[in-house]
Amino acid sequence: MREVIFLIADIMNYAHDILMDTFGINMTDKQLHFWIIGIIGMITFFFVYIAFKIVEKIKWSISLFAFIYTFTVMVVFVFAIELQQAVTNRGNMELADALIGLWGFLVFFMIYAAIAIAIYIIYYLIKKRK
Questions:
Q1: Cα–Cα distance for residue pair 84/103, rounded to 1 Å
Q2: What residue ranges of the chain have pLDDT lower than 70?
Q3: How far apart are CA 96 and CA 79, in angstroms?
Q4: How far from 18 is each of 11, 54, 95, CA to CA, in Å?
Q5: How far apart are CA 86 and CA 65, in angstroms?
């Protein structure tokens, strides 16, 4: 996990150096964050917007939206826990821990989805008989 964070930090530092050296952009960290995060955020927004417009047309779109939002929150939560472990030295900061935690959420969600689908099928069959 630490290696992944250091790799991301190295990539960001390299990108920063390219912007500063190649394009002669001389910005403070705050200015650079403003522009880069703003641009990345808008690109992400457009991809998410298009994806959600597609999901909107699916029958159980609210459930899909809830799953996507919850999964996103869980990703942030899991990595916050891993970072907290690194800062406090209480536990090992490992990518495998984060992934197994997310796998736990996915397994519990699949169990919920199976139960919900079974109930829906039973309800549909009873309604169809009447």
A1: 20
A2: 1-2, 23-24
A3: 11
A4: 11, 37, 29
A5: 32
Q: For 37-60, what is each residue's pLDDT tens digit?
A: 888 889 989 999 999 999 999 888
> What are the DSSP calls for 1-54, one per residue?
-HHHHHHHHHHHHHHHHHHHHTS-----HHHHHHHHHHHHHHHHHHHHHHHHHH
State residue 57's pLDDT score. Answer: 92
CA gap 98, 76 in Å, rounded: 10
**Is residue 55 within 8 Å of residue 64, measured between CB atoms?**
yes
Q: Work out the number of other CB atoms within 10 angstroms of the CB of residue 93.
A: 20
Query: What gap in Å lies between CA 68 and CA 56, rounded to an integer?
Result: 13
Q: How far apart are CA 25 and CA 35, in angstroms?
A: 12
Tokens of 55: 């999901």
Q: What is the pLDDT of residue 34?
A: 85
Query: Residue 27's closest CA among 38, 17, 42?
Result: 17
